[in-house]
From TrEMBL:
InterPro entries per record: PAS, PAS-like_dom_sf, Sig_transdc_resp-reg_C-effctor, Tscrpt_reg_LuxR_C, WH-like_DNA-bd_sf
UniProt keyword Lipoprotein present: no
PROSITE patterns xrefs: HTH_LUXR_1 (PS00622), HTH_LUXR_2 (PS50043)
Entry GO MF terms: DNA binding
Protein name as catalogued: Transcriptional regulator, LuxR family
GO biological process terms on file: regulation of DNA-templated transcription
Keyword Nucleus annotated: no
Keywords: DNA-binding, Transcription, Transcription regulation
Top-rank lineage group of the source organism: Bacteria
Location of the HTH luxR-type domain: 118-182
Length: 182
């Protein structure tokens, strides 16, 4: 069965998940759901650097190399990260990526974005604290979280300890129960 180009384009535009095509971290095309998720019109995003969707330059720079080894070997990459809407609101999303050129993974890449429904714990959390909570809620060890974030396991343990004190709980299970509702 051959599908006409027009049907492919309609399927892309109306997919129930945010989809974007990027070249060297520049948005070349995005669908309606991706634009809606970030509070933009699709035309506003096309040609823009992904930087406009991150909370800081350091977050934008940090995620650049995440998953490159998977992509270079032809495997898709997936993670969860804090992103920023046009109005400045921050939200967590799951990002999945597949490259069209494993020899130069960022040359042409297709990404999907899905909002994660993490409740607001009522206590302000730093981006780093949120990253550690996402890792913990995924069942990752401190070493795995550290590797994913480019940190030392000791730094992750320090953040976890700070979170335990902040929420007045004794262990990670209680922390996740309180923060994520597990």
């Amino acid at each position: 069965m051959q599908i006409e180009d027009e049907k492919w384009m309609r399927a892309f535009q109306h997919a129930p998940i945010g989809i974007v095509i990027s070249e060297q971290r520049i948005i070349r095309a995005c669908n309606h759901e991706f634009a809606r998720m970030f509070g933009y019109d699709p035309n506003e995003l096309e040609g823009q650097s992904f930087r406009v969707l991150y909370t800081s330059d350091s977050d934008f720079d940090r995620v650049r190399n995440m998953g490159l080894s998977d992509l270079k070997s032809g495997r898709p990459f997936s993670d969860e990260r804090l992103m920023q809407r046009k109005n400045g609101d921050q939200f967590w999303c799951r990002v999945r990526a597949a490259t069209l050129q494993p020899s130069d993974p960022l040359a042409e890449i297709v990404l999907s974005f899905a909002e994660l429904d993490l409740p607001n714990p009522g206590v302000p959390l730093s981006p780093r604290e949120r990253q550690v909570i996402v890792g913990l809620s995924s069942g990752k060890t401190s070493k795995e979280i550290a590797r994913a974030l480019g940190l030392s396991p000791r730094t992750v343990d320090d953040v976890r300890t700070r979170l335990l004190r902040k929420f007045g709980v004794n262990n990670t299970i209680e922390l996740l129960s309180h923060v994520v509702g597990l």
